[in-house]
Amino acid sequence: MDRAVKPRRTKYKFSLLGSDWIEWLIVAMLCATAALGVALLTGSVVSAVIVGLVLLAAASAVVALL
């Protein structure tokens, strides 16, 4: 095998489900806390659900890239 030719490693390992359940537990707790805070501050369940879903999407993208 030629030492000059090395297999390329990917910079990011993309896994939509993540590799660790602790990551998803942290994401779930973060979304629940944010949604509860928005619900308490605004009194609106709809806006709390929307904020929770947006945060879930953003956090899922971050976890998938880790």
- Give the rounded overall mean pLDDT: 78
Give the SSE order as H and E letters: HH
- Outline type: elongated
Report the end-to-end length measured between terminal Cα atoms: 32 Å
Helix content: 55-70%
Strand content: under 5%
Pairing-aware structural class of the strands and helices?
A: mainly alpha
Low-confidence spans: none
Could you give the count of β-strands? 0
Major sheet, described briefly? none
Contiguous helical run count: 2
Kindly provide the radius of gyration, computed on alpha-carbon positions and rounded to a whole number of angstroms: 18 Å
In short:
The protein has helices at 21-42, 45-65.
Secondary structure topology:
Layout: H1 21-42, H2 45-65
Structural summary, described in words:
The protein has about 70 residues and is mainly α. The chain has a domain at about 20-65. About 65% of the residues lie in helices and about 0% in strands. The protein has helices at about 20-40, 45-65. α1 runs antiparallel to α2. The radius of gyration is 18 Å and the shape is elongated.
